[in-house]
Each structure stands twice: as C-alpha cells, then as structure tokens.
Design brief:
By secondary structure, the chain is α+β, with helices and mostly antiparallel strands. Helices cover about 30% and strands about 35% of the residues.
C-alpha cells in the first residue's frame, strides 16, 4: 500500500524502461484489464510519447500518446487510484497535448470506457467532445469475459 503524501508536488518526465515495474503496478491497481508489459515495451520501442508522473520518487501515473500526420492519439492515461481527483491526471493530459502541439499536431483523439464518468468529465472540461462510440472496444470488467464494454470516442482541436 502506498501512503498518499500530504505534499502533492509532482514531476512529469519521460518514461524509462526501468520504470516499467512501477508503471505496471499502477496499471494493475487502476484497471481490471491492464496493459501488458509487452505493450509498454512496444510503445517505448517505437518512441511514442511515454511519460510518468511521480511524487517523492514514487511513480503514481503514466501517459502514452502517439503523434503522426498532424494528429495525436491519447492511448493511455492512468493515475493510481490513491492519487486520483488531485489534478494529476489533468496536468498529465495538458502536458501530453502541449507536446503534441510542439510536434505540429492540430487535433487530438482518444477512447474512454463509457462507464468511466470521472475521465469523461475531465476530458470534456479540457475541450474534448464526443464524436462516436466504438461498440465492444474494451474487455469486460466483470466476471463474464465474453461481454465487452463500449468506448466513447472523443476529439478536440489543438
């Protein structure tokens, strides 16, 4: 169990391979169907924008984004449940979008579980609008593995 520090100063930096154990722990604490180590390694290998956020040298979140052809796609934004609703996710999102603008992206896209009201509220407050639904996009979070959850597709101009 990680104790939540009272001093919430955080630092965002590039993800390194030696961050993967902490990133995977955060991912597993946050999601019923977490990304695998291989997916994170592939993102690092192909040089996607991979960031971690840490406080007092403890990784408490991560973000992964691809940028190509004038667009960015936010692939993963994860903040450990003990550190959610403290503004850390918003800070990570803003940093990723700023990095995308520096790479000449003019639009941003993402998918989010339709059940993730907190994330949807964050994205809407940062200018994202719903543009569609991907049926059955996410693995189920319940005991019935054949059931899948829809993803809300969102986008915004940069």
């Amino acid at each position: 169990m990680v104790a939540v520090p009272t001093d919430m100063s955080v630092a965002l930096r590039a993800m390194r391979e030696d961050d993967l154990p902490a990133v995977l722990a955060c991912e597993r604490a946050s999601y019923a169907a977490p990304w695998s180590e291989g997916i994170f390694r592939d993102c690092l290998r192909v040089r996607y924008c991979c960031l971690v956020v840490e406080t007092r040298d403890i990784v408490v979140g991560h973000g992964i984004m691809s940028v190509a052809a004038g667009e960015c796609h936010l692939l993963n934004l994860c903040i450990h449940p003990l550190f959610q609703r403290l503004g850390i996710g918003r800070r990570m999102l803003r940093r990723l979008l700023a990095l995308a603008r520096r790479q000449q992206a003019d639009s941003a896209f993402l998918e989010v579980r339709t059940s993730n009201a907190g994330a949807i509220a964050l994205y809407r407050s940062e200018g994202f609008d719903a543009i569609g639904v991907r049926k059955g996009y996410y693995p189920s979070t319940d005991a019935e593995p054949s059931r899948r959850e829809d993803a809300l597709m969102m986008a915004r101009a940069l």
